[in-house]
């Protein structure tokens, strides 16, 4: 017993003491969740998230300790034709009077006409903390609606940061609520189809949800070491459901398979632990390694995502090795109840000759080309995947701008009319300057001259009638100027204006001022800086993930060749996913089909995050499939027959796991924002490609061609293999006889 793998020893103890194992798991999850809530969340500050020059500009502005209140705008425009100025002035006066009576309004400014006289703008300053303004903006919107009702001949709209944030929060909140409500029934429905029994389908979901709950608490505790961001919880849910369901599927399907051969419940659990349990541990390490690579991105957002993902994967692996065997042992054959009649007949493991499971028919037919003509199959399949990956060479990276937010809300429609009438209220660059207090007058004069020069350049917005607005901190050390451009944030002309400001105008304006320090920030700057940051860090992260994954796979399978082919196949899968993303989202042909407006680029953070997630999740399937092939080799099979056995015997569970992931990720593709659409499509497409073309076509072709060379390793890695836990399935000579 002492020489048996730790996965088997853990499983046997849990199976022999199921109530203790279940109770310990419940206590563990409860302590993690309650402890995390008690400790509280430590969120990342703006300084923590500073990237590049734009991040430096944010730090300078923060150092100025400005008390910038939240500002809303009342926009008055004609419904048709030209603006009746007298009627507009009367409406502006009425709206201002109504808003002055609203609690939470600090002041209402004088109406400002647009340069062409087609619109009137009334600025409204809110009282209180600007961070919570979105939660307090509704009374102002109600007053604006009353003014609109009193002047129906005009269009009276409220637009500003708080109202846009409130509208987006409402839209995105509905989106995510719908996604959460759909993901659980979709996952359950797919698992019911996969197992044909309700309890068997519920066990993976139970493990996944409990793993997510425990990881949420642990990540809250970990946030005091690595600050958390808004997206951490969402990623824990996404990754936790994916790996939790996967690991349970691997384990439960193997346990059912062994029981179908006539083994006792305890023996079936032990064999599942030695085979699928071992694969779960290896794939868990592979996912953890991939996620750990995010730490090298030198970005607190990615670091927090890495911590959350690592924790949820570690918890899911632990649960699959402890509480899952306990549940299976306690349930026994009840795990196959209640049965869904038709689905049960299609999915239940059936015994064939000599107690082996009946041989499937579909997957041998799919595998036949790869096993009979491996070279031709490999060339064609790899050629297709490389062709799909080719568009990735033209990938462009940008942050989504205001123009990429959904236009389904009145607030965003009003924003478009506001920026058309008042270009300086749209895209702008933040010029942040820090200098000794005695140089404040020289800095102000320099920034005034800079604003005048920029206003004469067509890359920038014309000057406002009341001159440039320069904010100076109370200690006179920090000065801030907003330099507007009339173009959208992702327009190439906005980018050119940024570079002109950074490289020429600002250095020339501040030249000669002693002790001056400056930076240009804003939305365009953040997008450009972050894209450059990702391009610099992606090779480092990739090298780290590839190197450690190679070492883990080499040690696990005692084969350098298996490790190399694993990495190459996963790179091929990731490349195809990148190419598909560029093909779909950088062009316009799929806009109507998927309900988005092309931004002509991929969201900046997506390639790095997508790579580590896909590499980690793809290893789940790869480890499981290659483990079954290795099992066939250890059971005395030839290489070709072992490949056929390994893939046909694992195809059902890999397909089921992939369908679950594709279903959940596809739900995210239905959300309103472009970044969530790209993430959902990228993940769903990559998992689908990986579980089908890569595992059923490319992998068997490669391993059949390499033959015994698959298992080559240096002498120090070689060892005497233990006998297989169970003999492989019946030979499949009809698959391999032709080559």
UniProtKB/TrEMBL annotation:
<feature type="transmembrane region" description="Helical">
    <location>
        <begin position="538"/>
        <end position="555"/>
    </location>
</feature>
<feature type="transmembrane region" description="Helical">
    <location>
        <begin position="22"/>
        <end position="41"/>
    </location>
</feature>
<dbReference type="GO" id="GO:0005886">
    <property type="term" value="C:plasma membrane"/>
</dbReference>
<feature type="transmembrane region" description="Helical">
    <location>
        <begin position="233"/>
        <end position="252"/>
    </location>
</feature>
<dbReference type="InterPro" id="IPR004869">
    <property type="entry name" value="MMPL_dom"/>
</dbReference>
<keyword id="KW-1133">Transmembrane helix</keyword>
<dbReference type="Pfam" id="PF03176">
    <property type="entry name" value="MMPL"/>
</dbReference>
<keyword id="KW-0812">Transmembrane</keyword>
<feature type="transmembrane region" description="Helical">
    <location>
        <begin position="302"/>
        <end position="329"/>
    </location>
</feature>
<feature type="domain" description="Membrane transport protein MMPL">
    <location>
        <begin position="67"/>
        <end position="375"/>
    </location>
</feature>
<dbReference type="InterPro" id="IPR050545">
    <property type="entry name" value="Mycobact_MmpL"/>
</dbReference>
<feature type="transmembrane region" description="Helical">
    <location>
        <begin position="376"/>
        <end position="395"/>
    </location>
</feature>
<keyword id="KW-0472">Membrane</keyword>
<feature type="domain" description="Membrane transport protein MMPL">
    <location>
        <begin position="405"/>
        <end position="715"/>
    </location>
</feature>
<feature type="transmembrane region" description="Helical">
    <location>
        <begin position="273"/>
        <end position="296"/>
    </location>
</feature>
<feature type="transmembrane region" description="Helical">
    <location>
        <begin position="642"/>
        <end position="669"/>
    </location>
</feature>
<feature type="transmembrane region" description="Helical">
    <location>
        <begin position="567"/>
        <end position="587"/>
    </location>
</feature>
<feature type="transmembrane region" description="Helical">
    <location>
        <begin position="681"/>
        <end position="706"/>
    </location>
</feature>
<protein>
    <submittedName>
        <fullName>RND transporter</fullName>
    </submittedName>
</protein>
<feature type="transmembrane region" description="Helical">
    <location>
        <begin position="186"/>
        <end position="213"/>
    </location>
</feature>
<keyword id="KW-1003">Cell membrane</keyword>
<feature type="transmembrane region" description="Helical">
    <location>
        <begin position="599"/>
        <end position="621"/>
    </location>
</feature>
